[in-house]
Amino acid sequence: MDKAALERLCVTTIRMLAVDMIERANSGHPGMPLGAAPMAFALWTRVLRHNPANPSWFNRDRFILSAGHASSLLYALLHLSGYGLTLDELKNFRQFGSRTPGHPEYGVTPGVETSTGPLGQGLGNGVGMALAERRLADGYNRSEFLPLVDHFTYVLLSDGDVMEGIAAEAASLAGHLCLGKLICLYDSNRISIDGDTDLTFTEDIQGRFEACEWQVLRVDDGEDLDAIEAAILTAQEDGERPSLIIVRTEIGYGSPKANSESCHGAPLGGTAALATRRFFNWPDATFHVPEEVTQFFQRILTEGREAEAEWSAVLEAYQTKFPQDIQRFRRQIRGELPAGWEKALDKIDFGGKPIATRAASGKCLNALAPILPCLLGGSADVGISTQTLIEKEPERNLYFGVREHAMGAMLNGIALHGGWIPYGGTFLAFSDYMRGAVRMSALMGLHVIYVLTHDSVSVGEDGPTHQPVEHVAALRLIPNLIVLRPADAIETVGAWRHTMRMKKPVALILSRQALPIVPGNPDLVARGAYVLVDCEGTPDILLIGTGGELHLVVDAQKELAKQGVAARVISMPSWELFTQQSEEYQRSIFPPGIRNRLAVEAGSSFGWRRWVGPWGDLVCIDQFGISGPGEQVLAHYGYTVPNVVSRALALIEKNRQVPA
């Protein structure tokens, strides 16, 4: 069998494995795998540098299936290429507990670089990965040696990916940053779920991307392997511009439902699936893999091992010449922090004066930056406001522009690439713009830091559009996301210390206004809640505060003491961390027998009943804010010491009249 015929056989094998997976599961998206198989095959077998024997080899090319609904295409490639994904796993496509879930999931399937499915997120991830590669290469490559960090990021896009607004944000920034090692293959089949894309999508994609400073190439025949390869190689030669390769394909190629929305998101069905087999002259036996195809793909394993061995030799050469740099490089790509890094935080002097927690956070970041070169980040055009600028090394700052959506996805890509702990800042009220990316970060368990400032109605004069009310509650709803709302500079130190230790996404909720030193306990921030001020004997009431409201609770406790009321003050910077503590610890902070509990937080009351119980009360805000000076707005909503005292006394009296 000549090479062309053998490669055609391989492409058909990929197509039919995808069809068989979907038909067996009676669920899936066959259209794109049937149409895009040739471009995926050309990339994976002719261009992509990867080692299936070691999917985590650091200098591998990254491949992102942004159109995650075409997961069966990726699983077929992973199986044939030797990633350890067995035929039985393909037969369990979309089944409970399998390694072939409906959309690719990072950490579940070997060779899957990121979880995809929400369209456009994968493109944002790809921009982040390409940026991460660029920054590592700039830091470690030496002109007199072969490059130590030198790989491409490839993204397979669908029409839906390009429609999403995040794609415009990400593409704009990628072009501006000249990320020449980002290459996107666009499966332009012109069909979406509702029908022909002419219904909604008639813009000039080539013109749009060229305006964003991309190189745009076209392949008019999606079946032409040589043309696809040539386009990819041409894209590689342009080191200054990211590349978009528009490949004209036919959705559902070879099936009776080709070029129709009916094959986008539903199985072909028995009759159509059989007709597809006949079109490709394929055996009736399902999950058929010809021996010639198996042998063809064996070379990917061989070439992958050789590529990694060549890189290891480069690494050894660097080790000989630059031992300290390579020690730092190895530690950085393993995600290890240098010994004693926490001491930098202990040296910060806040002067004992009131300071906004956003400013305290900025001091923490700048104290850590010199000893943690792995920190990489910036903000969505609000670096000064969010205090996310590294002052003494301005070249380390990332400027995302007013692009929160893309920033979130890029931070995920940077974290997934390895070698960096990324952070990104914006106002808390605008966290909704990147909520999809924050959710994906939490789903994948990535070490990403979100610096979210201007955390309550105390924002003041900017009014309700900028005053976050429901946002903290909304973030607390995301599983696996740690939300930390420190009350003062001291707790902010504790928040950063614990944030760096955790390999999870963290949202730091920080104030715009100056807050007095309570003082909080930096070591106990990691517990999520702790007793800040206690009383003698059993408390009459528990006063619970977070963030900028905790100092009101402390002052209220003093006033209550003058009236003979014994109150315990609990600082609760993180619900999530507190729920991870032992039941014994939780009961020691919130004794079950104490019904009088008053929580004070300048935001939504949603979720607080869990902590105050049916007998407790809340000083919260369940409506939008109002424009005016911050202090006046806070007072309007009851965030004053007299009101907290009054609410505490009223609660005690109310519960006194109700038998226990």
First-residue to last-residue Cα separation: 86 Å
Please count the helical segments: 25
CATH topology of the largest domain: Rossmann fold
As a whole number of angstroms, the C-alpha radius of gyration is 28 Å
Number of DSSP strands?
18
**In percent terms, what proportion of residues is strand?**
5-15%
Structural class determined from secondary elements: alpha/beta
CATH homology group of the largest domain: Thiamin diphosphate (ThDP)-binding fold, Pyr/PP domains
Level of helix content?
40-55%
Per CATH, which architecture of the largest domain?
3-Layer(aba) Sandwich
The total tally of domains equals 3
**The first-level CATH class name of the largest domain:** Alpha Beta
Mean pLDDT: 97
Shape annotation: elongated
Unreliable parts: none
Q: Which sheet architecture does the biggest sheet show? A: 6 strands, parallel
Q: Which strand order does the major sheet show? A: 9-8-10-11-13-12
Overall description:
With 660 residues, the protein is of the alpha/beta class. The protein folds into three domains: 302 residues, Rossmann fold (3-Layer(aba) Sandwich), CATH 3.40.50; 167 residues, 3-Layer(aba) Sandwich (Rossmann fold), CATH 3.40.50; 130 residues, Rossmann fold. It contains 25 helices and 18 strands. The strands form four sheets. Strands 9-8-10-11-13-12 form a six-stranded parallel beta sheet, sandwiched between helices. Helix 23 links the parallel strand 17 and strand 18. Helix 1 packs across helix 2, helix 5 crosses helix 16 and helix 11 packs across helix 12. It is elongated, with a radius of gyration of 28 Å. The mean pLDDT is 97.
